[in-house]
Design brief:
The complex is a heterodimer of chains A (363) and B (544).
Chain A lengths: L3 E3 L2 E3 L1 H14 L3 E7 L2 H14 L2 E2 L4 H14 L1 E4 L1 H7 L2 E5 L3 H4 L3 H5 L15 E5 L13 E4 L4 H12 L8 H15 L3 E6 L6 H14 L4 E6 L6 H12 L5 E2 L6 E2 L6 H6 L5 E6 L14 E5 L11 E4 L9 E5 L4 E5 L10 H10 L6
Parallel strand pairs in A: 3-4, 3-13, 6-7, 6-9, 7-8, 9-10, 13-14, 14-15
Antiparallel strand pairs in A: 1-2, 1-15, 4-11, 11-12, 16-17
Helix pairs in contact in A: 1-12, 2-10, 2-12, 3-9, 7-8, 7-9
Chain B lengths: L1 E11 L4 E10 L2 E3 L9 E4 L4 E4 L1 E3 L7 H9 L23 H10 L2 E9 L4 H9 L5 E7 L4 H8 L4 H15 L3 E5 L3 H6 L10 E2 L4 E2 H14 L7 E3 L9 H10 L5 E3 L7 E2 L7 E2 L1 H9 L4 E4 L7 E6 L2 H7 L9 E4 L5 E7 L5 H16 L6 E2 L13 H9 L1 H9 L3 H4 L13 H16 L15 E4 L5 H6 L3 E4 L2 E5 L2 E2 L7 E4 L6 H14 L19 E4 L4
Parallel strand pairs in B: 1-4, 1-5, 6-7, 7-8, 8-9, 8-25, 9-12, 12-13, 13-16, 16-20, 25-26
Antiparallel strand pairs in B: 1-2, 2-3, 5-21, 10-11, 14-15, 17-19, 18-19, 21-22, 22-23, 23-24
Helix pairs in contact in B: 5-7, 8-9, 9-11, 12-13
The chains are: A alpha/beta (363), B alpha/beta (544).
């Protein structure tokens, strides 16, 4: 059954929902943060934000916007894990965190296998930029790696060499860059893979420029690994519901999007937001802000909060406790996830439904 | 609830009515006149025009590519109007909520999203679930997917192809089947930069013609009401009228729906190597009774082109305005999102605009030419009212032509055409014919037993205004629009077919997904309990 607490004391779900509604509806500018939830939970959250005239944000927005800002400023070329797995004859991996971000990545992309859709059916080539201290090793495949202490410079130099432009660098480095550039230019369908904090917007834009350049003569695409807690699913849901991704506010009665103004942590630390609804259904993540404001939390039981929320309602994990639609890294699309261990634990959608009952009408 | 619409001009081509009369609605259906009964609600619609709710057969309103376009262009849809409390998000520009609201206020009650690849079907149906009021449907995009192309390459018979198509359309909850540059997206992955009807897809050794023929056959064998919906090769290229005419020939007299024909009506005459060949193409359509087309009219304004013809979109990215685009090599078709600004003073854009109108005017049979802008590719669907005015009034057209560069006008036949659509033809093109084309017997007409989807318009000199703000709109007998304003949300159905097939193909597909993709096919299922409301679907029978 659902566990709920009001000011740290056990409470019934109905009472907790009523108190939550009170806190959120009395705020001048409530903010929904975390937003680690499935599509149904995101949908309910956005409708609730609309009702409350509040804002909403996601815990991994900073990383989401590293990719998304490049897309909406310069465009993007990208592909799916399926295409990468079945077709890529060249992989360009960037950064040391790839398998940490996606532990199943190597199994899923199977770089050591010959790509079945490739006409030449040759062993793949794997280039790895900044693989980190452990270096790049994979049984059954020779990897060419390139260390980099400055990805901006490395990617810029690589792009220049791939386009046949001169670069000013040490001879050994130049040899390496030339070697990489040759592999990239001779790829039939190459795929660049990145993720996490390794690349900021500038490097992603440079990488995108490289991909565009390569497509003048051959095929190349990108595979950003995205973020946990259904960040991409929340982007999609927010996109069709409001036209914008998260970091959107209904303060003026219509959705306004601004990555700086509606950064939940900034809004709270600056005093602009005066109550928060924290949602983290996938993991026991707690809010990172320091300021003490009225907090309603929908979180798994083991979450350690810096300060006890005024209302805390325990929720189940999408795809484990209940069926869920969520964005899947392994397919690059929103998928149908059957509950692995169905339980009575409430979904975010159900709890928000309870809260909304006390706001009049249904969210 | 018994509703009487009293004394309006009833325009109902299916029942050959164009007369002043009454229309009775009981609950969600149209009923025969009820003499002696007192209506619960009477609307005096004298002086008004009463038609069935309009049906849009081709409008990109949902799915991953549409959503990418929203996310690509935040600066193009800033908001400034709060919504009424009862209509959350209805003023959020380009949101699903706004889409349903605007369609309804123009008297549209059913809209088909024509390009959903199977792996995007769940997202598409989640999006459609958030479009209020109207009924929806999707066409499932096949023809660049490895499983199908492998079946054809390996010479498996039409039965296996039909089983695969049925299983995939069923799993995607689609209403029909579409091919988008059949084979072209796959050829592009092998670095092809052009792809025509008889070009061969590397690795599979199949021509586009062969794929289209096989898909046409599968659709017919499965008795899916809507014929194969085809986005042909060479979209948007000067001189592509030859491809279009060859494609009509490739249909071999079998049913085929040729989508957004305007984009294929280009000659390469004149100094600039670009001209209208719409007259020639219209003649070819007139001579091919097996073929239906929709226009894909261009209007002058900012828009964004959204297409699963990834090869074409890649080539078009050079002309992006603003200069950014997304090219997605997806499973099967993928897609390309390229913003575009159609300008009245631009030679090419002016000819494109004229081509669309020439097709409207020169294709004789309103049962075979459909009203679309290929939203948002030629123009957003919000321009429909202006287009109604253009095809219904030669004066409105003449004024518009006068604003164009005259060297462009000289490359078209448009100024010589005097035809004006009448209301009966409009009702055929936007109501009766779409229902017939999609196999929707319950709508598109005002006969007894029909679904009470009804649009009432106030006629006036300003034709665009008449169609922009319907006087009244009923969806399933529920009055949802008064004087062009939506009063409340209700939630429509997604229409789908469920063709029968030999389930052995499902086991084969499960194995294929496990082995090739390394993930379960079940991940891509459109699971009804994941949609926000129960009863999201309505099945359309497969029989003709």
């Amino acid at each position: 059954m659902n566990e709920a607490r009001i000011n740290g004391k056990p409470a019934l779900l109905a009472a907790a929902a009523e108190r939550a509604a009170e806190i959120l509806s009395h705020a001048r500018m409530p903010v929904i943060a975390g937003l680690g939830t499935d599509v149904a939970g995101a949908r309910a959250s956005i409708l609730l934000a609309e009702r409350l005239r509040g804002a909403y944000d996601h815990m991994y927005s900073a990383r989401v916007f590293a990719d998304l800002d490049v897309m909406r400023q310069a465009g993007l070329m990208f592909t799916t894990p399926n295409e990468a797995r079945l077709r890529a004859d060249v992989f360009l991996f960037i950064g040391k965190d790839l398998t940490k971000i996606w532990p199943a990545m190597l199994e899923r992309l199977s770089p050591t296998e010959i790509p079945p859709f490739d006409l030449a059916r040759e062993k793949r080539k794997l280039l790895w930029i900044a693989p980190g201290r452990g270096g790049a090793k994979l049984e059954g495949l020779a990897i060419k790696s390139l260390d980099s202490s400055n990805l901006h410079a490395t990617l810029a130099a690589l792009r220049a060499r791939a386009a046949g432009r001169p670069v000013n660098c040490a001879k050994r480095m130049l040899r390496k860059l030339n070697e990489f550039a040759e592999v990239l230019k001779n790829a039939r369908f190459g795929v660049a893979v990145w993720g996490g904090d390794s690349l900021d917007s500038l490097s992603i834009e440079m990488l995108h420029g490289l991909i565009r350049d390569l497509n003048r003569t051959t095929r190349f695409s990108g595979l950003p690994l995205g973020n946990d807690s259904n960040a991409s699913g929340v982007v999609q849901t927010s996109g069709w519901m409001t036209g914008f991704p998260m970091r959107t506010s209904f303060g003026r009665g219509f959705p306004e999007h601004d990555t700086w103004r509606f950064d939940a942590t900034r809004m709270i630390e600056s005093g602009e937001a005066d109550a928060a609804l924290w949602i983290s259904a996938y993991c026991a993540e707690a809010p990172q802000w320091k300021k003490n404001i009225p907090l309603v939390a929908l979180a798994p039981p083991q979450t350690a909060f810096a300060q006890e929320p005024e209302v805390c309602i325990e929720i189940g994990c999408p795809g484990i406790d209940h069926d869920a639609a969520e964005f899947a890294r392994e397919t690059g699309s929103i998928v149908s996830r059957k509950a692995a261990h169905p339980s009575q634990a409430s979904s975010v959608e159900a709890v928000i439904g309870e809260i909304a009952k006390h706001l009049g009408g249904d969210a | 609830m018994l509703i009487l619409l009293k004394g309006g001009r009833i325009v109902d081509p299916v029942n050959e009515r164009d007369e002043i009369g009454d229309l009775w609605i009981e609950n969600d259906h149209i009923v025969a006149a009820q003499p002696g009964r007192l209506a619960d609600e009477v609307h005096d619609v004298s002086g008004k025009i009463v038609m069935a709710g309009a049906i849009d057969i081709h409008s990109h309103i949902a799915g991953g590519n549409v959503n990418t376009a929203r996310l690509l262009l935040p600066e193009k849809h800033q908001n400034h109007l709060p919504n009424p409390p009862a209509l959350p998000l209805c003023t959020a520009k380009w949101s699903t909520f706004e889409t349903g609201t605007i369609y309804a206020s123009m008297g549209f009650t059913t809209v088909i999203e024509p390009a959903i690849v199977p792996h995007q079907a769940l997202q598409a149906h989640l999006e459609l679930s958030d479009i209020p009021i109207i009924d929806k449907g999707t066409l499932t995009v096949l023809g660049n997917d490895d499983f199908l192309l492998s079946l054809l390459r390996d010479g498996e018979g039409p039965a296996a192809v039909a089983d695969y198509v049925a299983s995939t359309v069923g799993a995607s909850n689609g209403l029909g089947v579409k091919c988008i540059n059949a084979g072209g997206a796959t050829a592009f992955k092998y670095n092809a930069r052009t792809f025509s009807l008889d070009d061969v897809v590397p690795f599979y050794g199949l021509t586009s013609r062969r794929i289209v023929e096989a898909m046409q056959r599968a659709v017919e064998d499965l008795k899916i009401p809507h014929p194969l919906h085809l986005h042909a090769n060479n979209l948007g290229i000067p001189g592509n009228v030859a491809t279009a005419i060859a494609t009509i020939g490739a249909a071999r007299g079998e049913r085929l729906h040729f989508a957004h024909l305007q984009f294929y009506s280009y000659g390469s005459e004149g100094e600039k190597g670009f001209s209208s060949a719409a007259a020639e193409l219209a003649a070819a359509v007139n001579a091919a009774p097996n073929v239906t087309v929709d226009v894909g009219q261009v209007m002058f304004r900012q828009t964004v082109t959204i297409s699963a013809d990834v090869l074409r979109q890649f080539n078009g990215a050079e002309t992006a305005r603003p200069k950014k685009s997304v090219i997605h090599d997806g499973d099967g078709n993928g897609g390309g999102i390229v913003p575009y600004l159609y300008r009245e003073y631009d030679f090419v854009n002016a000819i494109q605009w004229a081509c669309g109108l020439e097709l409207f005017m020169l294709i004789d049979d309103p049962w075979r030419v459909f009203f679309t802008t290929d939203h948002p590719n030629g123009a957003p669907f919000t321009t429909y009212p202006e287009i109604f005015a253009l095809i219904m009034s030669s004066d409105v057209r003449a004024e518009a032509i006068a604003r164009l560069p005259q060297d462009a006008v000289a490359m078209t036949t448009l100024p010589s055409i005097a035809r004006e659509y009448n209301l009966n033809e409009i009702a055929i093109m936007t109501r009766a014919a779409p229902a017939k084309l999609l196999g929707l017997k319950d709508r598109g007409h005002l006969g007894e037993g029909g679904l009470a989807d009804v649009a009432v318009y106030s006629p006036g000199r300003d034709l665009a205004k008449m169609f922009r703000f319907a006087h009244l709109v009923f969806k399933d007998g529920d009055l949802v629009v008064r004087d062009g304003r939506v009063t409340h949300y209700r939630w429509g159905k997604a229409l789908k077919v469920n063709p029968g097939y030999d389930k052995a193909i499902d086991r084969r597909l499960a194995g294929y997904y496990d082995h090739h993709f390394g993930v379960s096919r079940d991940l891509f299922a459109v699971t009804e309990n994941l949609l926000p409301r129960a009863g999201a679907f309505r099945e359309v029978a497969c029989a003709r």
